[in-house]
Amino acid sequence: MSAGIGTPLSRSVADALAEVDLTALTPGSPAFVDAVETALTSFFASRRALVEPLGPVFIDSADALEQFVIRGGKRTRPGFAWTGWLAAGGDPAGADAPAVLTACAALELVQACALVHDDIIDSSRTRRGFPTVHVDFEQRHRAASWPGSATEYGSAVAILIGDLALAWADDLVHEAGLAPAALQRFAPVWAAMRTEVLGGQLLDINGEAGGDESVDAALRINRYKTAAYTIERPLHLGAVLAAADPALIDALRTYGTDVGIAFQLRDDLLGVFGDPAVTGKPSGDDLREGKRTVLIAEALRRGDAAAGARIRAGLGAELTDAEVDDLRALLTDLGAVDDVERRIADLTATGLAAVAASTATPHAKQLLRTMADSATKRAA
Amino acid sequence: MSAGIGTPLSRSVADALAEVDLTALTPGSPAFVDAVETALTSFFASRRALVEPLGPVFIDSADALEQFVIRGGKRTRPGFAWTGWLAAGGDPAGADAPAVLTACAALELVQACALVHDDIIDSSRTRRGFPTVHVDFEQRHRAASWPGSATEYGSAVAILIGDLALAWADDLVHEAGLAPAALQRFAPVWAAMRTEVLGGQLLDINGEAGGDESVDAALRINRYKTAAYTIERPLHLGAVLAAADPALIDALRTYGTDVGIAFQLRDDLLGVFGDPAVTGKPSGDDLREGKRTVLIAEALRRGDAAAGARIRAGLGAELTDAEVDDLRALLTDLGAVDDVERRIADLTATGLAAVAASTATPHAKQLLRTMADSATKRAA
C-alpha cells in the first residue's frame, strides 16, 4: 500500500484487507459485502484506543454505532464507488486496491449518520427489524429507571452517535492509506457529496413542511437526497481515485444522476403499489406517511380540483385498505403511474447510453448495466 | 502558500488572509478575532457554488449557520491552536501562516456543531442573545403557518445544520492549503479531538441521566468535554503543524489538560456564586439547572446524609433567591468551595510549570501565562 496521509491507527484495516482477495469482487455480492464489513470492523477495532479512556458509557455508544453499521445491508454506495474505480481502470490486484476499498467503505459511515439522524427526524421506531438508535437508548434509559425524559435522552444520545459516525467517516478516509495525490482528488468530491446529502435532507424536510407540490421540487429532492448521494457521487469518488479523465467522469455522473433518479422513482411506485409480502412494508405505506413524491406531484399536476382534493385528503391520513385502493386507481387513471414508468425508462436509457459511449472498461459497463437493472426494475 | 491537499475552492480563503497582517496577532485580541472571522467568512463564500444549486431552502440554512458562526465570541480554540503553533516555532511572517490560521479557524465549525446540537439536547432557547438555531427555525415554521409540528421542524433543521458544520469543518481543514506532511501530522490529532468532544458530551448526558455523583465522574467529563477540546487538543493541533517534538507536545498537553480543567472548575464556581451583573446569567443558575459539577460532587462527598439530601433536593428545583443563598452557604461550609479553589490553583500551577520547563518560545510562554490567568481568574 502506498504511503498514506493516515496514521498508524489504520494499520489494522490495511492488515485485515491484505488477507481478502479483492480481484474478483462483484458489487452487491456476498464477497463484496464481506470485504466492506472487514474494513469497517477493523476500523471500529482501531477506534478502541481512542474510545476506551472515556469509559463504559462511551464504549456502549461506540458499540451501538458499530452494530448499526455492521447490520447495514447491500453496501450499495461502496459498490458504486468500487465500480467507478474499476470503470476508470482501477486494478483490483494492484497495491492501492485495499486503500480504495477502505475509502469506499467510509461511505457507509456517512450513511449511518444520515440514517440515525433521519430516524430521529422522522420519529421512526424500527430500522432493519431492530429498534432505531434513539429508541434503543430510550429503552435503556427506561430499563435503568433513570430520572428525566427517556425520549429526550434517546434523541440526545442518537444525535451524538450520528455526529460520531460523520466524524469517523472522515477519519476512515484519511486513514485508508490513499496516496496524497489520490486523496487530493477525492477530497473535493467527498466534500460535495456530504453537502449535497445534507442539502437534500433539508429540502425533503422543507418539502414536507412547506408544501411545495411541484414536480420540479420533488425531482430536486430526488436528485440530491438520493441520486447524487447514492450513485452519482460514489461513482465519481471511485473514478477520481483511478484518475479518470473528465469525459469519463461526466459519463459516470450522467449515469449516476439518471439511474439514481430512476431508482427513487421506482421506490416511489413501490411505496404505493408494492406488494407488502415482497417489500416488507405495509401496503400503500407512502400514502399513509404522506410522502410528497414525483408520482404524487405528477398526479396533482394532471388532476382537476376534485382529484387534487381527494389526493391531498388521503396523504398522511389513516387510510383503510379500500381507501388505499381508491387512491391507487386515481393515480393510475390520471396517467401519473404511466408517466413515472416512462420517466424511469427514459432516465435509465440516457444513463446507460452515456456509459456505453464512454471509455469505461467493458467489465464496468457490464456491471453498470446489471446495477441499473436491479435499481430500476426491482420489486422490493 | 505551499501546495495543498485542498481544492481551488479554498483559493478565496487564502486570498482573503493574504491581505491580513498575521505577524503580531495576540490570541483573544480584536485583530486575532478579525483574522479568524476573515477566514470563516471567505470559507462560507467559497461554499456558495455548492449550496446554490440546491435552491433557496438550503441557502437559508447555510446562511443561518454562517450567522451563527460569525456571531461566535473570542475564538478561544483557534487562539490556543495558534499559540501552540507559535510555541513550537511557527513563524507568523512565514509562507504557511495563512494556511495554519485557516486550519485553526476550522475549530470554530466543530464548535458550531457542538453548540447547535447541544442546544437541541438541552432545549436551550437562546444563545448569545439570539434564538438558538432550532428555535429560529421553529419560529420560521410558525411564521409561515406550515402544517405539522414547528418544534419538530426546528429540531430537524438544526440537527442537519449541525451536521453541515461538522462536515464543513473538515472541508475547511482540507482546503486550508496545508502542506501534505503538515496535514498528515494534523489529521490524527483532529480525529482524536472530535471523538473526545463527542465522548465528553455523551458522558455529560449520562452523568445527568445516570446520576453518577462521584468527583471522578465529574472530573472525567471536565477532562473530555472541556479541557481536551478547548485547550489541550487545540494547542496540540497547532504544535504538530509546526512539527513540535514529543517533549514540547507533552508539556503543552499537560498545560492544556490542567488549565482546561481549572477553567471548567472556575466556571462551576461562577455558575453558583457568580454575580449576575457580570456573568449575564441568573444568580445560582447551575443550581437551578441541576448541573452535576465537581463542586457539587465534592460537597456530596463531604456532607452527611442530611446535607446530601438538602443538596439533592435543591438541584434542578425552582429555587427562591433565599434558597440559593442557603445552598451556597452549605457548599461553602462543607469546604467544597475551598477544595475547588485549591484544585484550580494546583492545576494552574502544574500546567504553567510544565510549559515553563519546556522548549516553548518565550513569547508563547508569556501568552500561555496570560491565557491561564484569564481562564482561571475570570469573574464571568
From TrEMBL, chains A, B:
InterPro entries: Isoprenoid_synthase_dom_sf (IPR008949), Polyprenyl_synt (IPR000092), Polyprenyl_synt_CS (IPR033749). Pathway: Isoprenoid biosynthesis. One of its GO terms (molecular function) is metal ion binding. GO terms for biological process: isoprenoid biosynthetic process. It comes from the Bacteria. Its cofactor is Mg(2+). Keywords: Magnesium, Metal-binding, Transferase. Coiled coil: none annotated. Gene3D superfamilies: Farnesyl Diphosphate Synthase (1.10.600.10). Belongs to the FPP/GGPP synthase family. This is Geranylgeranyl pyrophosphate synthase.
